[in-house]
């Protein structure tokens, strides 16, 4: 479907506003945990399932995205996801107990899990190849800033109103998005109906088990046989899932694309970049509070300069990638990661908030030059019909690696071992930069002939 430049921009703006609001919902509840604990009279470990359960359901439905996009027109699919999210949010607001609240939260997670890979696929589809770096830079702006903005929005609303106001905010914005979508969203992809593979979906539940095990590592013992059993069963299911996808004529998810040059590196590099981003947003507030002595409010506000810098750089890094190529831009990104983590390691003992803020800004600048350029690099190595599968693979792996980064940082941190965390991620990004040199410089775009 041909779109005018104006209609394409409105289409993308509507997608990004909806995604930004849903992304905030992913990170906004951590600030409200104490409030939920008091309201429902439950321990923190139970309340944490509002985030953990959300992430688990997100991860397991991401592989369904290519099938949904092949079998349903995008506009009704997008509107349905918005409606499902809104219904889930209403259930949360009026929930009489925590169990009902979790049902609403899982409904929200379902919508976000399907939307994340879908909207990236659509944006890549309707954007000329030569402009993808710039547009995906805007996508990175939305993803990165939402992670930082979420806790700030919820913190401000909790200061003024109650916890229901957080979800009321989502409702208000998504109501606007829904009416915008009625006018601006179209269905640019052709439908290619395929049968639904229930066996593959069942096997993909191994993702939930794997993520559950990863999230439990930090407080489990070697004799916790139940969790180890979940890990074994989950790995068996995932091995069976991979084998089935590689041998089916019409797989649920095209995993064979991981053998395509540059796509495999795009998946690895965007995941390694995301690991640093999510670790900064979680570890630095703790550093500000436990080492420097800031209040929770000020520790949240201390994240703003880095988030603003990330947002400002994202489109500029994408534009630069369109102009000089992805390899040098990604190289800059991982170079900045190394500088940022190294500076934190060297300067942590100074216990100076401004030094820590500058180091965080350098790390998040690295994300601006690395994550979405790496995602676009991977997408440009695929033909258009494979982009939905590519977006789903990238989103799923990124989610798993993000959860792994949180656990890794938590385990290494222990009792305020911040230097250990800084060193761990410095080494990780030093290894990552070696992968950047393996990127194949090419002017051939896999999607060019389809545009």
UniProtKB/TrEMBL annotation:
UniProt keyword list: Membrane, Transmembrane, Transmembrane helix, Transport
InterPro entries: MFS (IPR011701), MFS_dom (IPR020846), MFS_trans_sf (IPR036259), Sugar_transporter_CS (IPR005829)
Regions crossing the membrane: 48-69, 81-103, 139-157, 163-182, 194-213, 225-242, 263-288, 294-313, 325-346, 352-372, 393-414, 420-437
Location of this chain's protein in the cell: Cell membrane
Superkingdom to which the source organism belongs: Bacteria
Primary location class: membrane
Alphabetized PANTHER family for the sequence: MAJOR FACILITATOR SUPERFAMILY MULTIDRUG TRANSPORTER MFSC (PTHR42718)
Protein known as: Major facilitator superfamily protein
Organism of this sequence: Lentilactobacillus kisonensis DSM 19906 = JCM 15041
């Amino acid at each position: 479907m041909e779109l005018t430049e104006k209609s394409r921009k409105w289409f993308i703006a509507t997608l990004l506003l909806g995604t930004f609001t849903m992304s905030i919902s992913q990170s906004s509840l951590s600030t409200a945990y104490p409030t939920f604990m008091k309201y429902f009279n439950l321990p923190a470990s139970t309340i944490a399932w509002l985030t953990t359960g959300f992430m688990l359901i997100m991860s397991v439905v991401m592989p369904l995205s290519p099938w949904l996009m092949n079998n349903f027109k995008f506009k009704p699919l997008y509107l349905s996801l918005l409606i499902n999210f809104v219904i889930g949010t209403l259930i949360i607001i009026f929930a009489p107990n925590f169990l009902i609240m979790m049902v609403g939260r899982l409904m929200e997670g379902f919508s976000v899990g399907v939307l994340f890979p879908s909207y990236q696929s659509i944006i890549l589809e309707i954007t000329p190849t030569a402009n993808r770096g710039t547009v995906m830079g805007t996508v990175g702006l939305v993803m990165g800033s939402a992670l930082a903005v979420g806790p700030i929005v919820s913190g401000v609303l909790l200061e003024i109103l109650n916890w229901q106001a957080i979800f009321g905010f989502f409702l208000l914005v998504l109501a606007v998005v829904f009416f915008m979508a009625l006018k601006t969203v179209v269905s640019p992809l052709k439908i290619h109906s395929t049968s639904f593979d229930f066996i593959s979906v069942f096997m993909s539940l191994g993702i939930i088990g794997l993520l559950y095990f990863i999230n439990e590592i930090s407080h489990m013992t070697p004799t916790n046989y139940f969790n180890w059993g979940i890990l074994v069963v989950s790995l068996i299911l995932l091995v069976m899932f991979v084998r089935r996808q590689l041998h089916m004529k019409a797989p649920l998810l095209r995993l064979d694309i991981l053998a395509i040059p540059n796509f495999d590196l795009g998946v690895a590099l965007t995941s390694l970049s995301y690991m640093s981003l999510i670790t900064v947003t979680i570890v630095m507030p703790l550093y500000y509070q436990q080492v420097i002595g800031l209040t929770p409010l000020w520790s949240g506000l201390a994240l703003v300069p880095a988030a603003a810098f990330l947002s400002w750089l994202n489109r500029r890094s994408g534009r630069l990638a369109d102009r000089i190529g992805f390899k040098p831009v990604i190289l800059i990104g991982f170079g900045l990661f190394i500088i940022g983590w190294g500076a934190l390691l060297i300067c942590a003992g100074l216990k100076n908030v401004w030094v820590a803020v500058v180091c965080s800004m350098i790390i998040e600048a690295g994300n601006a030059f690395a994550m979405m350029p790496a995602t676009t690099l991977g997408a440009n190595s695929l033909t258009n019909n494979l982009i939905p599968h590519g977006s789903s693979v990238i989103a799923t792996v990124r989610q798993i690696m993000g959860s792994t980064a949180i656990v890794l940082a938590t385990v290494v941190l222990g009792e305020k071992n911040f230097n250990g965390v800084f060193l761990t991620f410095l080494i990780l990004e030093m290894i990552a930069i070696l992968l950047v040199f393996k990127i194949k410089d090419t002017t051939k775009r896999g999607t060019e002939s389809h545009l």
